[in-house]
Design brief:
single chain, seven-stranded mixed beta sheet, 19 strands
């Protein structure tokens, strides 16, 4: 990667059970918090094509377990410096067996690690000396702020001009009030040394000095006192009411406990065009209810770039086909499917062996492709006998809806509904969850 590579932020895990974020520019990589297992961190980096030898430092925000759980094993396996405050390090040493020589105490001023310049700043949490960080690379600025009960003027200033932002949206006040926590714990969460509510996160986004376009990962969501629907509805509505144009000016994603969520810097993005979706499949829909369902979602997608359905004829085959006949059909249909894909489209194959992802992560995939300048996305559905190895090897991503078995025709309806859902999620518009 060259010095012109984008600044990237990858949230490997976010939530009450563990937090870890990767910040990267070119070959320069740092970790912010390591609250998941060493194995998960190493595997997550491999998925991002990052080797542990590229990690130039681990920044620890504070000493709570969901931010340091993987630290002891990481330091046992890898000689990586740990950057944190002295008070935090003392607390870590009371919990973990960690070598003191790997500590680099954070003080005022900036720190250069490869292509990255890092500055820390204080936040308000019930820990020894908690911090957030700014990371600079060229014209780009990434900021990570979680585990703070208030947004002070100092923190707000640190948010200013962030092109990439990981911001806590921990709880919904009503869910916290009527939820399962004991009174003392409810008081702690909602205190000035606790966490940010959805409303407080939205207020921070409205009050900060925003660049022309920014990307935000809403992080550290409580499993008991929040949910993605409330985060989206509350923050999205407050931003719209405050005059923010979701999409052209700001893109929002949700940090996930078990899935990687990524944002990366992009220049000259205007956000005015929508992805054009293509569904390319074998055979016509036979059932009227399926045709009506697909037609309804195609109609609903017109304001969001639209969906084009391409139905290719099924290959002719006898009543009692041999295995060789089936294989020939699969190969021939695969070749026709590939020919029907628009030039330069990002290709997704519906495949029983593909990866199962959430609706939010499909929306995140679409959002990232839009930011990267991709204008067409083609979803491919094979025929009754499956798909060829050639087709599997030719696509960018293989997607599975479920370990359950669906007919190829039913999958078509499920797919267009999920495309529509992703469009609504990315525009922070209400939908039936």
């Amino acid at each position: 990667m060259s010095e012109t590579s984008p600044l990237e932020v990858h949230v490997l895990a976010s939530g009450s059970k563990g937090n870890c974020t990767v910040i990267r520019q070119g070959n320069s990589v740092i970790l912010h918090d390591v609250g998941i297992s060493c194995r998960r961190i190493v595997n997550g980096l491999k998925e991002l094509h990052i080797d542990m030898s590229q990690v130039e430092g681990i920044f620890i925000s504070h000493e709570h377990t969901d931010h340091i759980a993987g630290l002891q094993q990481l330091l046992k396996r890898f000689d990586i410096p740990v950057y944190t405050k002295q008070g935090t390090w003392r607390e870590i040493q009371d919990k973990l067996i960690v070598p003191k020589h790997q500590l680099v105490e954070l003080t005022k001023g900036s720190l250069s690690l490869g292509n990255l310049t890092v500055e820390s700043f204080g936040v308000s949490h019930d820990a020894a000396d908690p911090i957030g960080i700014n990371v600079f690379s060229g014209k780009d600025k990434a900021t990570v702020v979680t585990d703070t009960g208030v947004i002070t003027d100092t923190i707000l200033h640190r948010l200013d001009d962030s092109t990439l932002l990981v911001l806590e949206a921990n709880y919904d006040p009503q869910m916290l009030r009527f939820g399962p926590y004991q009174p003392f714990l409810k008081q702690r969460v909602a205190s000035d040394e606790g966490h940010l509510s959805n409303e407080m996160a939205a207020q921070a986004l409205l009050m900060m000095k925003r660049p022309d376009f920014m990307q935000v990962i809403l992080a550290h969501r409580s499993e008991n006192n929040n949910n993605p629907v409330l985060v989206t509805q509350t923050i999205g509505q407050m931003l719209v009411d405050g005059g923010v144009k979701i999409g052209p000016e700001m893109k929002l994603q949700h940090g996930q406990p078990n899935e990687i969520v990524s944002i990366r810097s992009v220049h000259n993005f205007r956000g005015t065009s929508y992805m054009k979706f293509h569904v390319i499949c074998i055979g016509k829909l036979k059932e009227a209810y399926l045709r009506e369902g697909v037609a309804e979602f195609v109609k609903r997608m017109r304001p969001y770039g639209g969906i084009t359905i391409t139905e290719l004829n099924e290959s002719r085959i006898g009543d009692k086909p041999s295995d060789a006949d089936r294989k020939q059909v699969v190969v021939e249909e695969g070749q026709r499917l590939l020919k029907a894909v628009p030039k330069s489209a990002y290709t997704v194959l519906l495949d029983v062996y593909g990866k199962t992802i959430s609706s939010e992560n499909l929306a995140s995939m679409v959002s990232k492709l839009e930011v990267d300048g991709v204008s067409d996305m083609a979803f491919i559905i094979g025929g009754a006998f499956g798909v060829s190895d050639e087709l599997r090897c030719s696509v960018k991503f293989k997607l599975s809806f479920s370990p359950m078995t669906f007919t190829h025709q039913m999958v078509r309806l499920l797919l267009v509904e999920q495309i529509y859902r992703s469009a609504k999620i990315n525009r922070n518009e209400p939908y039936h969850w």
